[in-house]
Amino acid sequence: MSTTSSSTSQDQSRAFHARIDDALHNDQMRTNFRRALTGIMAHRAKQFPDDAQLQALRDQARAVRANSLVRQPELLEQLERKLTENGIQVHWAENPQQANSIIRGILQAAGAKTVVKGKSMVSEETELNHDLEQHGIEVIESDLGEYIIQLAEEPPSHIVAPAIHKNRRDVAELFKRFHPEIPYTEDINELTNSAREILRHRFATADAGISGVNFAVAETGTLCLVENEGNGRLSTTAPRIHIAITGIEKVVEKLADVPPLLEILTKSATGQPITTYFNMISRPRQPGELDGPEAVHLVLLDNGRSRIRVDAELLDTLRCIRCGACINHCPVYVQLGGHAYGTVYPGPIGLALEPQRIGLDKVGTLTSACTMCGACGEVCPVRIPLPKLINRLRAEAVDGHPGQAGLPGHGSLRKSTEATTWKLWRLLYSRPGLYRLFAASATRLRALTPSKLGGWTRYRSTPKPAPRSLRELAKKEGFGND
Amino acid sequence: MKKPDSVYYFATCLVDLMYPDAGLAGMELLRREGVRVLFPQDQTCCGQPAFNSGYRDDALAVARAQLACFERDIPVVVPSGSCGGMIRTHWPELFAGQPDEAKALAIAARTYELTEFLVDVLDIRLDDLGEPVRIAIHTSCSARREMGVADRIESLVGQLGNVEVLTQERKPECCGFGGTFAVKQADISGAMVKDKTDALRATGASVVISQDCGCLMNIGGAFEKQGNGPQTQHVAEFLWERTKR
Amino acid sequence: MTDARHNILERLRANRPATTPAPATYQKPLGWDREQRIASFVERMQAVRGEVHRIGDGDWMDWVNSELPSRGLRRVLVGRGDIGETVAGRHAAELDVRRYEEPIENWKDALFHDVDVAITGVRAGLAESGSLVLWPNPDEPRLMSLVPPAHVAVLSVDTLYENFAELVQAQNWAAGMPTNALLISGPSKTADIEQTLAYGIHGPKQLITLLVG
Q: What ipTM does the predicted assembly reach?
């Protein structure tokens, strides 16, 4: 067991570093990210001119989300009851395979051959598109960013702006390759217009629409979707079937919980006071109504969430409303972009969520990609203490007490060399006498400081101890011990 | 809080070995304000390096060894946002449920970052005796976000008539040190400090100051490796040199 | 999949996190009078390239009859409610008015390709965010405000609320939600290429509010 996990942990670390290396050498992509994120951060800042109001709104949003997690089983049952009363069919899936098979089953039973899809990160978790395509169902991503990366056969590099790593030339090249009938252009408005024309036909003819959910309201049985383009509305309105997929944590208790969440979500995510569309769906088409899907389904996916909820500290991860503000403000993400992480969710929320969802033995190395600078926690609209959670996961990953195993892959990144180094450090720094001896010799033998200190000296000069330590100087300058 | 007669000085391991002049300058500033500064000789490290690497047992053992050094009910002043933040924010976490939790909490509650203490408690007045200089300020992430005291350095420097402060692009962004991060993710850290030093150099400042010697070791080391760039100096040393008679 | 349901709920019930205080009901009263609400609505809507025309006590049909033909928006879709009646009864000769009165399946292609503009009523407006609030119904179905390239919305000043929180409470939405409720704040847009705003990606390219009263 231990040999397997240690070789896995070496593999994941090697693979992660290879992706990092690729990312850091891709100057064009880094420029794209730097420019995009600088803009998004400025837009967000403009939405919160009054810090006291922002903090009050964060408190409210946090309280709403925390409450919904405490009461989650009751709220999910209430949600199911209300949705069922409203005529929306509810399905439960413990893992991606179950979710995909439910969705596939619905589509096959209805004879659906083509699907238009709105943006859904949960469907990325389940790799739904791949599953459906393997079974002969055509899936068209209709969010412009998602459409672009679908053409490029790439995963999203950001949870809100999936094609953020592409510039206009990349998009123009993709359109040229896949739609040679359209005159080549690098003009963003013209590219947008082309996408409108290409996808319009798809909306008019698709058999089914698939979407995510931003909030699911238990009180009224309402699925809320936030978007700017209208592709979400089209996917959930034009075809005869609508299937929504979401994580079980997205449930909120009351309709009155929604306005503050909506406000802080759009302001935090893209720096908009509100998005163009806020779409609240409570029923399939009713008798007498002339449009809308005849059948609406909701698939509730667990995929590790109920396990995360067990831990009193880590459960805060589930408050996330997927705004991406932590990602936008992360000084590591801006250097790497999203693909280097190799997981569905990148950036700080990815560091916190993915090792819990997938296992520390599989992706625990991600937690090393953090300086603990705190920028993520500072902007999180629901006050998830991201640095604290990442730190906790680091501790779980190297913990040497097997009895405490709660997280998958607990202790799997513990290396004996590293553990020994810290033991030595501990010995030195917890014995004042020993430390004084060390300090005296380090300063007196400063000429012997090695000139190469691993990765540090690749980018910086070697730090050298001073000729005399402060404890010596303090004594000499008359600063007493007590 | 009213001005205390005495304070403890918690130098931090980095200042002790690498930046004693900065540490001493901080003590001189406090002493000039009429405060007796105690330097417990048994102090070593707050435990942060191990804590941020996940080795909490080792961090706890080292942090615990500090408790006896700071027992009297007087402020503990730390010339670092990062180590101050460790004590104030993370000691309560680290010591939770431990027999000596109360002691750790008490120390955490009376711990101050140096510039915070100079401004909030001592209300220090500074008289600039130095030559005109243009500087840039790098605020450490811990001082900014963990301790919430990033503006104190600005207000101290603001008292100096001959100092012009230039602002670098993306000032609140981390410089890329992050403890063992700089070793485990050396290349990301290198890319970050490259961006930071580029932004600082572009201001045209001749000196870069900060509350944290960790950031300065990173930024200053990178300037040195790159072969050009402003001088780096801890805020305490900068203030002391310009105001001592 | 009842097993999945059972297993998930069992796991959730087995571990109840410590109770947190229930969130207070969110309110954000701004104390705006009628003119302030109008000013904010207009400013916000225009900021996202929504057009707003104050009709005042005048006749919004005058605007429809004079503006739509000159903009080339001749093929007009209306519903079966009051707005639709008015347009159908009083439109200028250049306008070709079609009623939405059949299930979408019967004329989907025509809706997607042969309509220039839809005119609908609006349930309410939100001043702070510059939003139109729609509850589509059999008389004015969901796709009207979505598929045609232009959408003209007739909004009464008397239904301008300060914000969404106020509206949800004042109209007691929790007592019963419609099949579909919408907030619409401007024409369709995207910033998926280089974070650069481009309008009219999937929904209406033009959103025109006629502010009546």
A: 0.97
